[in-house]
Amino acid sequence: MKSLPRFAIIGHPNEGKSSIVATLSQNDSVSISALPGETIRLQRFDLRAGDKTIIEFVDTPGFQNPQATLKWFREHESLEGKRVAQFIETHESDPDFHHDCELLRPVLEGSGILYVVDASRPMTAVDTAEMEILRLTASPRMAIINPKSGESRFLESWKNAFRQHFNSVRTFNAQTARYLDRIELLEALKSIDQDWEPALSDAIDLVRLDRRRATERAAEAMVEHLEQSLLCSCVSFLESDSGVEIEKRKLQEQYRSKLEKIERRFREQACDIYSIRKVSIELPENSILAEDLFSERAWQALGLTQKQLAVAGALLGAGLGVGADLAAGGITFGVFATLGAAIGAGSALWKGKDLARAKISQLPLGGLKITVGPNVSEQFPFVQLDRFYLYAQFVSNWAHARQETSVKLTAGDEKKGLTSGWSQEELKSATRFIRAVRKGQGEDVESYGRELRNILVKALEEMS
């Protein structure tokens, strides 16, 4: 066995071979077509950890002439271990066996075999011929059931046939596989040849290390973008009070736009961290993550419970909002209260007037200073953090075989937020970070930021 584990993905056309390659190699550039026979030549895709290739997968064409190929294999039984090499040498110029020669080349080079089947259809004589050819190669091999539908009537007959022809059988849905599903399949590959265990164990350790680094980067991105949201503000100056209302509305829109950009930058970074480059994730209208950050619905579903909020409020400093009012010299306007026409009675946790403030100050040398933000609400940072977390959780378990140009998060993808399940200690750590950011305490921001990042790393790992 070479130091680099290598596997040829083989099977009948349109059974999901390319999907398996895309998900296992975490590569959404793998071409996947609904039309059978689109893969006509070998394509190699590396699974990488950092800058190192740790496993190579070879996407192959489907069998072209399996029954004739099997007939030749049986007629040349005396060649034993030389049958694959002799078959290719004999048929490589024959267009009727072009695909069969192509898919057997990596086997000749020492690749293991992953035979992919959609077990929702009945087995045919062609399938039996393909499995027998692979058995006669005597190469280590695993059968992978790729369930493209929920149909299970034929599953047992497939499994019985697989047991006769393969060293191992696994079910793996390339469209829905999460991180741990991929790890389980890679672990199972050790069982098809004991000699491959050391190389595969090293490769899996590197996959886990790479995953850990990605999780740490995602958590770091959440902390960084939360700090940006907490510090976000807009300022304007006027020579007189003429046009104050117009300027307030202008700043209000700028403030909302800046927060939207912060969240958009985080989502782009999260997709980059988890190598999602071809899919633009589109949020449906009924998604919490598609809701405006300051909508009542978002605040009802995300953030802290009332009990937690009382604790957080005490830790952050009771009367913080009142202090802001007083600091504005009594000339204070609840900017977002003006946006509440579409909002009903409101939840107990949602206080529109506290979400952001437009503060107008008289300058000593004349003129006015108008400021919107930073946000002083106790709940705001936890709602924002939950939105970051839900998005990171979703993309961290993305199956790269999914080829949609846009994807809608479903209700199942967006459970309740993270922060409402926090312990007292976790809540205290988060509030220490929030308070340090708001007070501009640089060293505390760094140290408490590390605490918060560790909490987020643990949460993301538990949801893998």
Word description of this protein:
The protein is of the alpha/beta class and 464 residues long. The protein has 2 domains: 6-192, Rossmann fold, CATH 3.40.50.300; 214-324 and 333-339 and 366-462, no CATH class. The protein is built from 16 helices and 12 strands. The protein has helices at 17-25, 66-75, 83-91, 98-108, 125-137, 155-165, 179-189, 197-231, 244-273, 296-301, 306-316, 320-327, 352-355, 380-396, 424-439, 442-462; strands spanning 6-11, 43-49, 52-59, 112-117, 141-145, 168-171, 234-238, 280-281, 332-333, 358-362, 368-372, 406-407. Strands 2-3-1-4-5-6 form a 6-stranded mixed beta sheet, sandwiched between helices. A 4-stranded antiparallel beta sheet has the order 7-11-10-9, covered by helices on one side. Strands 8-12 form a two-stranded parallel sheet. Helix 6 (155-165) links the parallel strand 5 (141-145) and strand 6. The model is unreliable at 318-349 (pLDDT under 50). Pfam families: DUF3482, MMR_HSR1. This is GTPase/DUF3482 domain-containing protein. GO terms for molecular function: GTP binding.
Write the layout of secondary structure elements.
Blueprint: E1 6-11, H1 17-25, E2 43-49, E3 52-59, H2 66-75, H3 83-91, H4 98-108, E4 112-117, H5 125-137, E5 141-145, H6 155-165, E6 168-171, H7 179-189, H8 197-231, E7 234-238, H9 244-273, E8 280-281, H10 296-301, H11 306-316, H12 320-327, E9 332-333, H13 352-355, E10 358-362, E11 368-372, H14 380-396, E12 406-407, H15 424-439, H16 442-462
Parallel strand pairs: 1-3, 1-4, 4-5, 5-6, 8-12
Antiparallel strand pairs: 2-3, 7-11, 9-10, 10-11
Helix pairs in contact: 2-5, 3-4, 7-8, 8-9, 8-14, 8-16, 9-14, 11-15, 15-16
InterPro entries: DUF3482, GTP-bd, P-loop_NTPase
GO molecular function, one term: GTP binding
Domain G: 7-134
